[in-house]
Amino acid sequence: MESLKNRTLLKVIVLGDSGVGKTSLMNQYVYKKFNRQYKATIGADFVTKELHIEDKAVTLQIWDTAGQERFHSLGAAFYRGADCCVLVYDVNNLKSFETLNTWHMEFLKQANPVEPEKFPFVLIGNKTDVDGGNTRVVSDKRAVEWCGTKGNIPYYETSAKENINVDEAFLGVAHKALSNEHKQDYIYSRDLSASVTDILEEPSRPGCSC
Ligand code: GDP
Ligand code: MG
């Protein structure tokens, strides 16, 4: 009971063009598998990973799209209550990098966070393994510059295929999600409402006419 109470649930959503490796990254991180059959085929919308950050028990609830990103038509439930948005592009695919602006804007429009300029984002440049880096078209410098224009978003480069930097990237995501100020407000107000309920449910004292 105590551990449940102290566990922080963080909702993370993963956005980016179709084919950049979103599902592969999640599968590598959660199942340590590349090419594993994705759970969406049995109807799940998210996968979870439990971890500890500075003595805090954290559950990362990572939401993936099941191909709807092609149509930019992700439902409101996908965005609702997100604590961190992970944007993914493929370092070998210029278009997937250029579309990041659209995904960034789309997230802010749909999720409508209280303070958009403070909302935690993380950028991942995936598929660094392809052809030993020879087909790469977006430099890390260019990616970091883009992150700078969006309020210094943390940037990670990964290979979901070779399992390079995937754990580090999601650990960064967890840290960023924990920093979501409005999450803290939410937890706090939930605690408050719990104590209000306790007070309301207190049995009336016998013999009291008030
Ligand atoms: P999503 O549409 O963004 O979810 O992308 P997927 O995870 O379905 O990956 C699209 C394709 O890219 C699949 O064929 C993956 O096997 C491949 N892929 C994903 N990540 C990597 C990577 O890091 N390196 C390489 N070489 N291929 C990858
Ligand atoms: Mg996918």
TrEMBL record:
The keyword Nucleotide-binding applies. PROSITE patterns: RAB, RAS, RHO. The keyword Transport applies. It is found in: Endomembrane system. One of its GO terms (cellular component) is endomembrane system. It is a lipid-anchor. Keywords: GTP-binding, Lipoprotein, Membrane, Methylation, Nucleotide-binding, Prenylation, Protein transport, Transport. GO terms for molecular function: GTP binding; GTPase activity. Belongs to the small GTPase superfamily. Rab family. NCBIfam families: small_GTP. This is Ras-related protein Rab7. It comes from Brassica oleracea var. oleracea.
